[in-house]
Design goal:
Major capsid protein gp5 fold, 2 domains, seven-stranded mixed β-sheet, three-stranded antiparallel β-sheet, 12 strands
């Protein structure tokens, strides 16, 4: 994220202030671009319904596809016709985050770096962390039946994906010998829901990523990579899941045990829409300089809960 006309402080040193160097539309685009690139949820969610968002409180209407009935055909028998009807899901843009920066004229003229741009980059990173954390904490409860719990599996009903307990005893124990098998069982749960094999994702905390790297998959012969995970740190794809590591995975302490909700699913499950609706520079009424501020409004919704689940686990 840089200012498009002057990436340094040449205009500042000449006493021109920010007029002529600050183009809100271009700067906003760079902020949003960096914001999406840095987030986990941007990788696991779809933005198919983002539409036109102009302000906090807007909503996007999502039309769902109805299930079509398949009938047996018999010669001479009249055909049955149905009139498909589909409901709508409302994606409400009901959340917002903002940043506000005070820029002092004296400091910016004396600075030897474009610190305003650095501040903007940090604002993007901090906004990402806040929104990521909120989403990853909120959506586990929206997982579809059969995709969580000790009797997961829509068809089999015999997959243990863990559950809450006062002492953490129902959480699945994850170590280097069990983590890959458990992820494969998560894939089974999605397959029993007829979820497509492509565009599947898994979000795990750093400690779980370490268990994968210490497992048999750490060797190139198992991972199919030319270099082992222990050398390059790459996790990649396991059982059609693209693996993402995040420090924002929801956790809870049960007794003395810390348990985590490891999310998995398909990109059709979660939709996200966002817009940086306000981005402006105004004179500081209390000092020499400017105030820079921006408002990002957003909303998200689990629109296909059968395409998402969670593994409730604890480290061995």
């Amino acid at each position: 994220m840089v200012y498009p006309i002057d990436s340094g402080l040449g205009a500042y040193a000449a006493g021109n202030g920010l007029s002529g160097t600050y183009i809100p539309e271009i700067w906003s685009g760079k902020l949003i671009e960096k914001f999406y690139a840095a987030t986990v949820f941007a990788a696991i969610a779809n933005t198919d319904y983002e539409g036109e968002i102009s302000s906090y409180g807007d909503k996007v209407i999502i039309r769902t596809v109805p299930d079509i009935t398949i009938n047996d055909y018999e010669i001479g028998k009249s055909l049955n016709y149905e009139r498909p009807s589909s409901g709508n899901v409302e994606l409400l843009i009901d959340k917002g985050k903002y940043y506000g920066l005070a820029i002092n004229d004296v400091e910016k003229k004396q600075a030897d770096i474009d610190y305003v741009s650095k501040w903007a980059e940090d604002a993007s990173e901090q906004m990402k962390i806040k929104i990521d954390t909120g989403i990853l904490a909120d959506i586990p409860s929206d997982a579809g039946a059969g995709n969580y719990g000790t009797t997961a599996g829509k068809i089999s009903g015999n997959i243990d994906l863990g559950a809450t307990a006062a002492d953490g005893s129902n959480a699945v124990v994850i170590d280097k010998t069990t983590i890959v098998d458990k992820m494969i069982e998560c894939g089974q749960a999605l397959t029993e829901q007829d979820v497509p094999q492509t565009n599947r994702w898994f979000v795990i905390p750093a400690w779980a990523a370490s268990r994968i790297k210490m497992s048999e998959l750490s060797e190139a012969s198992y991972s199919g990579d030319g270099v082992s995970m222990k050398r390059n740190g790459r996790i990649g794809v396991i059982d059609n899941f693209e693996i993402y590591v995040s420090n924002n995975v929801m956790s809870a302490t049960e007794g003395a045990v810390k348990c985590y909700s490891l999310l998995f699913g398909h990109k059709s499950a979660l939709t996200f829409a966002s817009q940086l609706t306000e981005n402006e520079m105004i004179p500081n009424p209390n000092d020499f300089g400017q105030l820079m501020r921006g408002l990002q409004v957003y909303g998200y919704e689990v629109i296909k809960n059968e395409s998402m689940g969670h593994l409730y686990a604890k480290a061995a």
